[in-house]
Amino acid sequence: MLAGPNLAKSAREALSWSAGSQLLRDVLQFAAMLVMVRLLTPEDYGTAALAQSVLGILAITSFGNFAAHAFQFRDPFEIDWQAHFTAAVFINVTLFLMTIIVAWALSSTQRYAGAALPLAALSTTFLVEIPATLRNRMLETQHDWVRFRLLLILGTMLALGAGLAVGLLGGGVWALVVQPPLFGLPAAIDLIWRAQWRPDWSWSWARYRDTATFGFNRMGAAAAIRGRQTVEQTLMAGKYDFAALGVFTRAMGLATLVAGRLGSVAMQALYPVVTRAEIRSAKFQRMAGLVLQGVCWTTIPAAAFFAFNARDTVSLLYGQQWLSVTPLLPLAVIGVALNGVAATLSSLLLANNEIRFCLLIDVTGALVAIILAFLLIPINIVTYLAALAGLGLLTVIFFLSALVMTNGLGLKSVVTAVFPSLVACIFAVLIIQIGRYLVNDSYPAIVQLLTFGIGFAGMYLAVLRLGFPSATRALLEVVPAGHSMIRWLRFSNLHYSSKVP
C-alpha cells in the first residue's frame, strides 16, 4: 500500500502521464474536429447528440458506476474483480437489449426517427465496456499509469481514425456514431490477451453489497445529470430543429474543450491517489486543497480568456460557417468552467466517503436545471445558458460548504484556490481589453489569439508570482516540472516547502 513519499511520487506520475496523454489525445481530437466540422452538418451533430443523450440515460445503470467503487478501498488487494465482472455481464447485456428496444420505439416516431439507427449501433458500447472498464480500473488501482494511458491513447486513435475514414467517405452522422464503441476496444483486448484474465463467474450478495450500495448512489446522481441533458436536448430538437441543437452542442463542446475538462482530467488522474489517504485526515485535506487550487488556477483563466475572445476562437477552430456559435460561447464557457470546478469538488467529497452528500447536491442541481430547461429554452438559448451559469456557481458554493463541514477541506485552502486566480484574471483581462482598444480587428484570428494569449498569460503569472508567492510556490512544488518553474520564476529567495505529507 502506497504511503508518504511513495504516494506523492505516484501523484506526480499520475499527473505527468495524464497531462502528456491528455495533451496528445486533445491534439488528435482537435485535429479530427477541424476536419469533422467541415465534413458534417449541424443536423449530423444534432442527430448524434440526441442518440448519445438517450444512450447516456440508459448508461446510468451501467457497470461503470459500480466499478468506480474499487477506488474506495484504501487497500487495493481487497477488490473482488470476479464479482465485478459477473455483475457487469448481467447489467450491460441487459442494457444492450434495452437500447435496441428504445431504438425500435424511436423509429416509429416522425421527429426522432433519424436518431433510431445510430442509437442501435451505439448499443454495442455496453458490450465493449464490460472488459474495457474492468481492465482500466485494474490498472488505475495498481497505479500502472503508463499502460493505462497508452491504452487510452490507442483507443482514441482507433476511434478517431475510424470516424475520419467514415466522414471522408461521406458517412455523415455515422462518423460520430462509430467512435464510442471502438474507444474501449484496446483495453478489452489487453485484459484478455496480455493480462490473460479469465472469469470464474463467482458472485455473492455478501461480497457485492457495499459495491451495490455505492453504485446505486452514483446511479442516482448519474440519472439526474443524464436526465437533465436528455430533457435539454429533446426540448431544443422539438422547439427548434436538429441544426439549432447542433449549434448548441458545438458551443458546449468547444467550451468543454477549452475550459471544462481541466478539473475532470485532474481528478481522473488523481482520484486513485487521493483515495489512498484516510478520510478526514490532515493528509486528505492537504491533498484536496492542492487539487482544488490546481484546478481553479487553470480553469478560471481559461474561461476568462476564451469568454473574451469568443469570435476569434470560433472563427479559427470551426470556420465562418459556425459563427452562430459565437454569441453562445461566453456564457457556455463560464457555465462549463463552473461545472468543471463543481465536478472536482464532487469527486473530492466522494473520495472523502460522503456518498449521500454527493447524491443530494447532484440530484438537486440536476432537477433545478431541468426546471430551467422547461422554462427558458422556449424563450431563447442565451437566457438558458445564463441561468445555467448561475446554477453552476450555486453548485460550487454548496460543494465547498459540504467539504468544509465534513473536514475534507480547510477554509483557508478554499480562499487560496479561488481568490488569487480571480485577482490575476482581472488584471489579465484588462490587458486584453487595452489591446483590443489599441489594435483593430483586421488581423487574422490566429494572430490575435496568440498575441492576446501571450499578454494574458504573462500578466496572469506575474500577478500570481508577485502578489501570492507562497501559494504559487506551494502548488509548483507538487506538480510535474514544478521545480523548473520555481527556478524560472526566481523563487530562490522564498524558503517554503509544501510536500504532500
Task: Report on the architecture of this protein.
The protein has 501 residues and is mainly alpha-helical. It folds into two domains: 1-223, no CATH class; 240-467, no CATH class. It contains 22 helices and no strands. Helix 7 packs across helix 10 and helix 11 packs across helix 12 (242-260). The chain is globular.
Please render the helix and strand layout as text.
Elements lengths: L3 H36 L2 H17 L4 H5 L13 H27 L8 H7 L1 H18 L3 H24 L5 H4 L1 H5 L1 H9 L11 H35 L2 H19 L1 H13 L7 H26 L2 H8 L11 H23 L3 H22 L4 H25 L5 H28 L6 H23 L1 H8 L5 H7 L13
Helix pairs in contact: 1-7, 1-13, 2-5, 2-11, 2-12, 4-5, 4-6, 6-10, 7-10, 11-12, 11-17, 12-14, 12-16, 13-14, 13-16, 14-16, 14-19, 15-20, 16-17, 16-18, 17-18, 19-20, 20-21
